[in-house]
Pre-mRNA-splicing factor CWC22
Amino acid sequence: MPLKSRDEQKVNWKELSDYIKDNISSLATSDTKIESPLPYLKLFKVNIVRGKHLVCNYLITYMKQQSSFGYQNLLDLTCYINTLIEELGASIATGILEEFYDNLKNKDTSTSTDIFLRYICALVRLKIMDEVILLEIIQEFLAENNYYFVSKVLLLCGDHIFDSNKSIHDLLINKLNSILNENIDTKTNELIISLLDEAKVDYKHLRLQKYEWKYSMTQHVITLDTLTSFKFLTEFQYDENFDQLELDYQKLYREKIIPFFEQIDPDINEKKNDENTTLIKVTDMSNTETIEFKKKIYLIIKGSLSGDEAAHKLLKLRLPDFQKPLAVDVIIKSSSQETTYSKFYGILAEKLCNTHSSWQKAFKEIFIENYNNCNDYEPNQLRNIGKFWGHLLATDYVGFEVFQCIHMNQEETTPAGRVYIKFIFQELVADLGVKELKEMLEEPYIQPYISNMFPKDDTDPEKIRFSINYFTAIKLGILTEPMREKLLKLEQNKKEIEGGFDHKNEFVEANRERRRRGRRRRSLSPERRISANKHSSRYSGHP
């Protein structure tokens, strides 16, 4: 069925985004260098021309947190993309440069700046980018007297600059050599010394690490003055030419992508069958199909005698990832319709989450939806849904990071939302005990996810006080102890500041009083002098 409606395209975009993210993530976080072309071919299974902004965004995101092997894997992925889809290769190169240049303008010297510079140098060495960009970057660093990063560029790509433009290379080396006697920081000094040692041996070690791409690809000439503040559009946008773009990509996949990978690995056809790497045609559902699908899931649940049986039947369906949130939604709504909370649904959720991380992801997605739509439920439904989530959180199949969406303050919560949270925590206490729950909430790794629910922000004591009052009211005051300590410190600091102002005011007032008394004495003294003069004149005989 043609995918033309906005809703159908939106679901398709979500699945496309998840698929691209998962594949790039697996390459970036790998603990080995991936030699086989198959993991790279997997990314091309979906229309990455339509999802080019997603590819660029996720690739750049994972660059910042990749492992040592992930660095090489992402470089290989960039080479594959630039060889097969030139415009996408250009977008990736431009995106990396823009991120790097933004850091440069903002004086950001964090690890990500180092990583982006390393990638830029690698892309120049691979001839994906022209070396003119390196000279522009060096010029920017020299203008800022940032000799550390000038040395860094040369340590990463000095052999390439030497081979392409020896005169500029020698000028840079002489410049760095001349500043060694100047007052520069130790870190920069050590880096320059390392560079000079490497240059003396003609970058012997760097040349040994040289990485080459065996297949022809386009080299992109990108300069700093052509960069814009363009950001990758990762949000869904309706496409009127959706069907034609899908047909065009299928033709590209069939006529260019598959033959290229067969050239690399002649046995890839057999491996394709094993790995199921034929082109994925994303199929979304119309409203009618969605209703029929939910009805099917509902009948499976109601026709099962236990949570284990229901899970077994659902797993046999082998649902694609984009349908799993719909199935989870049916499970939770079925639970909400019960007179009281049934552990049937908790066991069903546990079994599903235990099979694959995609089910956990689906449950996390629906948790946020449930919280945002609390006002749509009746009190009894809120109780059942809250107890369901409390049980699942206690089992740790869904982590406490879902609490990131909860901002416990007067402005950002609703009465229904606060009731929903109360039932979640009551079930957590019932399953774990308040002591274990408190210990879990105090784990350092979980703090960023609960900082809005248990705020400790110095700038707004009212939010801290509101959260303390809320959890105390639902008889979980023990969870608020860190917040109480923080609030006490804030109030003490406030009193000290106010006390300082009071002391200052008293001092100012005392000074004013002394000045007033001084003025009164000065106003009387002339009269006394005049009187004294008159008195002396009568006895001296003067008129």
Summary: Confidence is low (pLDDT under 50) at residues 273-278, 522-543. The radius of gyration is 35 Å.
